[in-house]
Write a structure and sequence with these properties.
The chain has about 300 residues and is mainly alpha-helical. The chain is built from ten helices and no strands. The radius of gyration is 26 Å and the shape is globular.
Length: about 300
């Protein structure tokens, strides 16, 4: 059975003489992934600014028509409603396009880059010098790209579905609390015991729901953690099989995996103190340790 100290010792050994290369490729990976996201965000920020300008002109035009056009019983120009509906539909379409662009960057650029970044740690573990940048782009190869994208998309889909299920108690309790609060007479200076009891029950449901949500997210995070490792390690494995095998590899190990991540809490404190810049020095150590965890589990399962 693997231990935290053993995995971290092996990670340090793998990084010996290659640590600063790891920091460099971490920076390159971060800049590439961040640049792709920034381009998409910049495009949509520009589009939203144009849309905001047209929306302002629309509102000013509607106010000018108030004295000349037909007016409803509420004093609103009759032409306002169809124009407002049109602008609302355009705005919703823009929101959907924005999210589609973000997901496209994530699936087609960020995920393949992250797999290539992980491949670098496979290479140094096998004795590679770590000086070459080409492992970072291994997922973009012709016969590899589609399988990597499908595998990570499949993993993300199941993570999202489980997160959605876990959020149901939070959503329902929050909605019920808002409805209940708005139904109260806010002019009153005090509330009855029954009303306080209802609020306490709704708060309790919310807290229980939040704990359940956190448990589901953590459970699925560790269940699907090895998916990308399997896609790298076995070129013949399919994306469905990779997810199933990851679940099997993490079975009975999730609490130990959590404690392994928790053993880096001191490092994460330094990351916070350095306003996040310290992550450039932590992530190589963390990724190398997680790589050792994958191979430790692979060896343990091969002996069964």
């Amino acid at each position: 059975m693997w231990t935290c100290d053993d995995l971290r010792a092996k990670a340090r050994l793998a990084l010996t003489g290659k640590y600063w290369w790891a920091v460099l490729w971490t920076l390159v990976y971060t800049l590439l992934a961040g640049t792709a996201s920034s381009i998409v965000s910049g495009i949509f920020t520009f589009v939203f600014q144009i849309f905001g300008t047209f929306a302002t002109l629309f509102m000013e035009g509607s106010s000018l028509q108030e004295t000349s056009g037909s007016i409803t019983s509420r004093g609103i120009p009759a032409s306002f409603f169809p124009q407002f509906a049109l602008f609302t539909l355009i705005f919703m379409a823009m929101i959907l396009l924005m999210y589609a662009g973000i997901f496209a960057v994530m699936f087609f650029i960020t995920f393949p880059l992250s797999i290539g970044y992980q491949k670098w740690y496979f290479d140094i573990r096998e004795g590679g010098e770590g000086k070459r940048v080409d492992p970072l782009f291994m997922a973009f190869r012709k016969n590899t790209y589609g399988r990597m994208v499908r595998g990570m998309a499949w993993k993300t889909l199941w993570t999202f579905l489980w997160a959605l299920i876990g959020a149901i108690p939070i959503i329902l309790s929050s909605a019920a609390a808002f409805v209940f609060i708005f139904s109260l007479d806010i002019r009153r200076t005090s509330f009855g015991n029954s009303e306080i009891a209802v609020l306490m029950i709704l708060t309790g449901i919310y807290l229980v729901g939040f704990i359940l949500y956190a448990f589901i997210i953590m459970n699925k995070y560790y269940s699907y953690m090895f998916t990308s490792y399997l896609l790298i390690d076995d070129p013949s494995i399919g994306y469905r099989e990779a997810l199933k095998k990851s679940i099997a590899m993490s079975k009975g190990q999730k609490l130990h995996m959590f404690f392994l991540d928790l053993s880096f809490i001191g490092w994460w404190a330094l990351v916070v103190l350095t306003c996040g810049y310290g992550s450039l020095f932590l992530i190589p150590y963390l990724r190398a340790t997680q790589t050792e965890l994958y191979f430790a589990r692979k060896a343990e399962l091969s002996q069964i």
